[in-house]
Request: fold
Amino acid sequence: MTRSAEFDTADFYDYELPASCIAQEPLPDRAAARLLVLDRASQTIRHRHVRDLPDILSPNDLMVVNDSRVVPARLYGRRAETEGRWEGLFLSEVVGVEGRRLLRLLSKTRGTLRVGERIVVVGEQGQDLAVLELVARDSGGTWLVDPCSEEATVQFLSRVGRVPLPGYIREGIAQSDDVERYQTVFATQPGSAAAPTAGLHFTPSLLHTIAERGIKKAEVTLHVGIDTFRPISTDKIEDHEMHSEWCTVSEGTAMAVHETQQRHGRVVAVGTTAVRSLETAAHSGVAESYSGATKLYIRPGYSFRVVDGILTNFHMPRTTLMVLVSEFAGHEFIQRAYKEAMGNGYRFLSYGDAMLIL
Reply:
């Protein structure tokens, strides 16, 4: 059957998202978030809570989480020559010519930046903390900069950076509670510029109960970069350029996937980043260990190889994440689910509620 051309347009994955639906604060109890459960086989929708996961999943199932840790990626400063205000977002570390360590940043300021220009990074009290030198323009409107420091990147960002809240939460202005709250409880591998938000709903107590029920857990690492939250700006989704993000799937996780499949359990990915990591590692058709860059863009026509279920937050319209969940669950089913969630007061985006697609 020929696929409708509508599926290939960005407008097909658009929807109206009122600002009132976007969560501005996290719930005091992470696991109290509401959970919209979608059953693909029966095309039914149930209303539950994240704390109900031990009862919804089965002992044969495997839950795969992303253990990437958010770094203090938000930078504020001024242009050294003009004193103009500047804002940056760290995306990744890049090894330049002759092994020179560079940082890849999104950058925002008035006027036009130029190669060789210097930026003074400032702290919350206005004190000068570091100097960045603009080395080269990079793809997707990003810059490569020299941190002018011998510190390791994680230590450098910990000293000069701030919590990288997305702009739709309090205009990106973090509060003290966000340092702990915009981080999953299983985050161990520093490198993300944004939280893998589906994981924000878990507590140590919930993870303990899940393990007690015999539901297995495994980890992947995908350091969240620009394409996890960047809207599609092209008319056709195939023309959208995916930037690479670093991911790792260990031999142990690949083995856990095989064992789950052998016992006819479900591989449930916690977040779209876990989906893309697992599917990248299964490029041959079966899950294998993998460590490297991924540009995997899941869009119409994609055949999922290992993922049987997805726990995910509600996403921004016109994004690759909407394309991914629509391809997994079916576009009409996702549209119906989003409409029902909005009509029932669900909280959207990073600090919002979640959906489980099985």
Observations:
- The mean pLDDT is 94.
- Residues 5-70+178-357 form a domain with the QueA-like fold (CATH 3.40.1780.10).
- The two ends are 25 Å apart (CA to CA).
